[in-house]
Design a protein that fits this description.
This protein is of the alpha+beta class and 183 residues long. Helix content is 42%, strand content 14%. Strands 3-4-6-5 form a 4-stranded mixed β-sheet. Helix 4 crosses helix 7. The chain is elongated and about 55 Å long.
Length: 183
């Protein structure tokens, strides 16, 4: 049924139609490309493939509270995942994949398979004060041990200098993390 230039299926409110718009656009794109479409059962799989890594390259990483949780800085589990990805050209946007909200951010420097882990670590170092569950010294110890376990090199650190924020640089020095980088 067409009403005032808009198409509504019978018994659908405008709110319901808007809620289904993304699914309809996805199906239309698949039909135009003559590709089969399927329901997204696992949004995380789609998120990882599209914004973090393919089978051959890495172009993003989880950031924010999700990564801070993974390394033990916080018990917080965010409703919105934060991802830094080279696949994002704007300063940042929030999207929904399946039922999962995702905040995409553009990186300060190009993400590669070699530097993704270090950039992810530097990101959490620069934001460590957001997670007040631990004391400053305990936070420093966890981050220092993480850097030691990862065996990051000074050469790799130098290759990402353009992506290091001032707060991350200060914390690397204050907490002694800088001394964990190998020669």
């Amino acid at each position: 049924m067409i009403c005032g230039g808009h198409i509504y299926a019978e018994n659908y409110s405008p709110e319901t139609a808007v809620g289904r718009a993304a699914k309809v656009m996805y199906m239309a794109a698949c039909l135009l490309k003559r590709q089969p479409y399927e329901k997204i059962e696992d949004p995380m799989k789609v998120i990882i493939c599209k914004y973090i890594q393919s089978t051959t390259e890495t172009y993003g990483y989880f950031a924010g509270a999700i990564f801070a949780n993974q390394i033990g800085l916080t018990t917080q589990m965010p409703a919105t995942l934060e991802i830094v990805t080279s696949k994002e050209s704007t300063k940042g946007c929030t999207i929904t994949v399946g039922s999962q909200a995702v905040r995409l951010k553009r990186p300060a420097t190009t993400i590669t398979s070699e530097n993704a882990g270090l950039l992810q670590f530097l990101d959490v170092v620069s934001q460590a004060e957001k997670y007040f569950e631990l004391s400053d010294s305990d936070t420093g110890i966890i981050l220092k041990n993480y850097a030691k376990q990862r065996n990051y090199s000074k050469e790799l650190l130098c290759s990402v200098l353009s992506g290091i924020t001032g707060s991350a640089a200060i914390k690397l020095i204050e907490w002694g993390i800088i001394y964990e980088f190998t020669s």
